[in-house]
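User: Hey, quick favor. My workstation is busy. Could you predict this chain's structure for me?
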Amino acid sequence: MTTEDTTTVIVVGGGPAGLSAALFTEKNGLETALFDTDGTWLHKAHLFNYLGIGSVGGSEFVETARGQVDRYGVDRHQGEAVTAVSETDDGFDVETDEGTYDAEYVVLATGANRDLAEELGCELTDEGVVDVGLEMETSVEDAYATGAMVRPNEWEAAISVGDGAAAALDILSKERGERYHDFDVPADADGVFGALIDDGE
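Assistant: No problem, here it is.
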């Protein structure tokens, strides 16, 4: 088993919460790796209630989101399952069958599966979900939990995407030393789409 160089952010889970967190952190300059075993419930869904999208298949939504994080340069480990997450003096060790990866921050986005969070020592609420604040940070400093693992009932793609964004913005705020907002304006679109055209996307 090998140990990789330290990554700033590791996201565990490739559903809407995990993909959202990875998009925000990588887009804003934090080296990000995402581990995705393709277990998201969205493959069983069709979205009619996602604001701004009239109708889209869940799998199509996931593929679009994956393309988005790939274009920004997220190091996506498709099919590589995380088996353990533990604290270190400098952050976290994230273990898979292929190696151990170091990160300063970890974002857990594993749906209703709370095993990794519990093993890491994250506190649970009386309802048995992971206890987080508005920024999605758990009782373990610099470890975040998102989506269905922090909510007993509200398992919605739109909510999960927001949870991932909230976690990412808190990480970015910590790194910048001030409250950070990822707010794009129309002029930014020319640069983004121009770069995608140049890259043949």
